[in-house]
Structure formats: C-alpha cells, structure tokens
Amino acid sequence: MRISPTKFISLLFLVLSVFYLYTAYNIQVFAFDENAPFNARTFPIYLGWAGIILSSLKIILPEKVTTEVNHKYLDYKSLIYLIIISLIYAAVILKIGYFISTSLFLFASYYFLGERRWGLMFILSFPFVAAFMYLLHGLLNIYLRDPFLKYIGVMG
Amino acid sequence: MIEGILIGLSTALSLTNILMVMVGCFAGTIIGMLPGLGPMTAIALMIPITYGFDPSTGLILMAGVYYGAVFGGSTSSILLNAPGIPGTVATAFDGYPMAQQGKAGKALAIAAYSSFAGGTISAIFLLVAAPSLSKVSLAFRSPDYFALMILGLTAISAFSSKGQFLKAMMMVVLGLMLATVGQDSLSDITRFTFNNMNLTDGISFVLIVMATFAMSEALTIIFRGKDPNRAAKQISLTELGSIKVNKEETIKMAKTIPRSSILGFLIGVLPGAGATIASFLAYGMERNYVNEEEKQKFGKGSVHGLSAPETANNAACSGSFVPLLTLGIPGSGTTAVMLGALLGFGIQPGPRLYQTNPEIFWSVIMSMYIGMVVLLILNLPLIPYIARILAVPRNYLIPLILFFSVTGIYLMSFNNFDIFLMIGIAVIATFLRLYDFPMPPLILAFVLGGLMEETLRRSLLISDGSPNFLWDRPITLIILLITITIVGWQIFSTFRKKS
User: Does the beta-carbon distance from B419 to A93 stay under 8 Å?
Assistant: First the structure.
C-alpha cells in the first residue's frame, strides 16, 4: 500500500500531537493549582487533543485535492549545501564574531550557488557587512555583539 | 471640535514639525525594512532623541517614525516575503506573488495608496468618534476576545488555504503548540522546554516568521530551482519599478478600501486585537466579498488581496490610539511604547486628556494624518528604486535573504541556539510548503497563542470551569455563530464538490 506524502505528514503530526499531549499531562503544576478550573496544563491538553483529532481526520478522510511533486525537478544537492553552510555559520558566529562569520557565510553561499565573479563576491560580503554593521551600530546605536572586533579595538 | 482640529493643524504644520515628520518617515522606513526591527523598536529608538523637544514636536516625530516603519515592514513583506512585524504578514500573501510577477513597483504603490486611504478614513473616524468608541472597547470581555480569536483563526484557515481546510487547521494547532513553549504567563511554570534554558523565554515571533517565510522561501527557491514551471522570468526593470495603477485596479481598490478601513478601525479599537487580527480578518472578508473569478486570484497576486490587509492594518493603527488617548490603555506594543513617551513628557492620557491638554490630543491626531501624507509624497518617488532589489540575481539575493533572517535573530538574542532552531524550523517549513501546508495560519496562531490562553484562563476562572461563558454573552455567542457558519460552510462545500 502506498501512503501519500500528505497523509504521511499527517501521521507525523499525529505522533507529535500524542507526544505533546503526553508531555502536557506531565507538566508539573503547584499543588493548590492541581484542581483549579485552569492551570498551566489545561490549554496544552486541549491543543494535544485538537492535534490528534485533526490529524486523524486527515489520515482517515479521502483526499479531495492531491498535491503532486515531481522529485526529478528538486535540487536536493544545493539545498543540502546551503543548509550545511547555514549550520556552520550558526556554529561559529559566537566564536569568531558577527563580522567575519557573516562575511564568510555570504562569500561561501555566493560560491556554492554558482557565482564566480570574485570582485563582486568580495564587495557583497566583507564591505557590505561592514557597512551594514556601521548602519546598525554606528548610526542607529543598536548593539551588535562581536567579540573579535572588540578584541582588536574596532568596536567599543 | 473644529477649534481643536485647527489648534492641532496649526501645531502640526509649523516648519519644525513638518521637518520632524519628514525625518521621522524616512528614518522609520529604513528601520522598518531592517529584519527584526518593527515600529515598536523604531519608536523606542526615538524616545531619547525626543526628550529635548517640546511634547507636540516629539510626538509628531514619533508618528512619522511609526507610519514609516509600518510602510518599511510592508516593503520587506512584498519584496522578500520577510514580514518583520505580525501586522504585515497578510500583506505578503498577495504582495509577494505580485512582486514575483515583475510588478514590485505596482505592489508597493498599491500598498502605499491603500495604507494612505485606510489611514485617512480611520483618522476621520478617530476625529469624530474617539470618545464614544472607547465605550465599545470597554464592552469587550475575555470570552468575547477568546471567541474573536477563534473566529480569526478559523477565517484564516478557511480563506487562505485554497480548499485545504484540515491542513490549515493542523497548522493552526502547530502554531498554538509552538506558542506554549516557555514559561506559563501566570504561574511561571516552564512547559515544553525539555530543560533547555534557551527555551525558557519561549520562541520569538521574529524567529518563527523569518523561518517560515523568508528563510523557507529562500530554501524553496533553491530547492525547486530546476522546476520549469517556476523558472525565473525575465523581468524588465521598467515594469519592475513602474508604480502606475490602471483604471481597473483603481476600481478594485476603491471597492476594497472602505470596508477594510471600517473593519480595521473597529478591530484596532479593541485593546490587544490590533493590526494583526485586523489585517487577517480583512483578507478573509475580502475573499468572501469578491466574485468567483477574483477569488481564484487570491494568493497569486490579487489587488483585492493586497489592498485589504494593507488598508486594515493602517486603519487599525489609528484605531489603537482610541483606547490610548481616551482611556490611557495601550492596545498594542507600539502604543504601549507611545504611552511611555507621553508619560515621559508629563502627559497622562485618559478621559481627561481631551479637556486638560486639547492641543496635545488634537496635534497627535493631526500629526498622524500629516505623517501619512508626507510618507506618501516621500516614498512614491523612491518605489522604483526600492523595487529594483528584485532585479538582483538569484545567486546574490538568496544569500542576502538568509543573511537578513539570521541577523534579525542574532540582534535579538546573541546566541546561536536560536539560529539553529530557525534553520530547523525553516527546513521543516520548506517541506510542508512543498505539500501545500499553508504557513499563514501557523503564524497567526503563534501570534495569538499567548493572548488566547490568557483569555480562556480568565473566562474559565470566571465561569468556574463551566463552558457556559461561550454562550452567556450575546457578543460571544454571535462571534461563535459566525465561526460555526464558516466551519459548516467548509464542510458543506467539501461534500458538494465530492458529489
């Protein structure tokens, strides 16, 4: 039997709702609040049941409109590259600071998306991020944490 | 009243104040376009600057910043599908598809005209009916708010999901589930944090909206890059920047603006409801009003679909000043910041403001209106240049959208857990969008989640746990009956199509 992707997603949502409901019943509330008409558990419990009912209906009822996706046209490779670059960016932003990590992220993204005009890639990464940081930090006085620039004395 | 309007006009039209409103509009537009920075931040940034001015000038500057930031938010919604504030999420439904068709200038112009018209009509309402409308705002109780939010969520599921009501309702539940992560507002008990300190404060709105709209849009463009149906069209720069609105489109706007203004203003008057519910309800209502042919265009670049939420969110902005100026109750985050600024000037808004400081009361109202006029005059010539953002090649635009999204989150928390979380949510959203699970209901549910739980809590405590609160009050009952009608209509139309 072949299960449609929509029904498969609904099945995952059903599992999530069951887990959510189980966690909701296990929320610790104060002893005096245990039998109150409304406590920290009440709303999540309603939501858990709503999720179970809706996803079950979606699984049981026949599909009126089916969504067809042609996997031949999906570019998994570029998507995975971009996600990996974003994850590396998130991992290093605190360590090497906003300026360098963001500039490198932009430069690498341009490269993986097929750009090879090195001059333009450079301008739209390092000087661009510097200008953006100046707008935020210098002009609008919005604090932008960057331990590296602070260390070399560029930022106060 | 005429005397008051003249006092307000003479104050607002002085050279210094006109200059202030221009500076405010310009600064507000720039700040509003930046990720994660909405009108609330923009006004908060201006407070220290305005303390050197007299109260009227300070408030006029803030009014300019306010409208500028709202317009800036609409700009990023339309061009990048990256709404920075909840009030402009519905603008992206039709604004972004219109921009993708190479009509970015037109979309921005329609947004500007609609905002202006919505603001004008609601400013007139504000002038005429502010004191009496404050009573309406007080008449709404917790059960009514709860019912209103249920109506908003049902309406958005019914009208924005193109016949996939159950999928949209699942997204509503998912949005509400995400909103429950973090500390419970009353008891401070942490829920669904799994002992992770980063989740104690809950998930921020900007994170959710950037993940589900901007970042997932960028990932979708890359993911479906080989799809011949979605191949980038050759867009001419002249057409992209053109702000010409033809006669047919003007007629469509003329039909939409009055009804969306009234709805937006009335919703804006209710404390807590604000521009978000107003814009979503206006979008849903408009889809219900138009004929079958126009209905099919919703979500694909409909003029009605763009004009309605833009009109309503601006009308609601003016409406939200009613409880602030007449009762001293801020109805939204932005008006709460405005209240702080007013108190800083030594002005106590409330029922007596109208009598004790008429010049302040009227100059705030008049300056809001002048702010909108200046915004329109200043921004229309800039639209052709702003719209050219879309002419940036995909290889550059996608990384820049990702950079925008990540910066918005980093600015708020300075930790990388939120960035990881955003990437995770964006990847899930990309796959959900691939199979037509709509994101707008999730966003609205997430925004309303906290308030919905709060009003349900109050209602149940007042009724001692009984569900009677749902039908005890006529307002609650009427709103719930409308909701039941919408659900019933969805079920009926499903069976009708099957048969």
Answer: yes
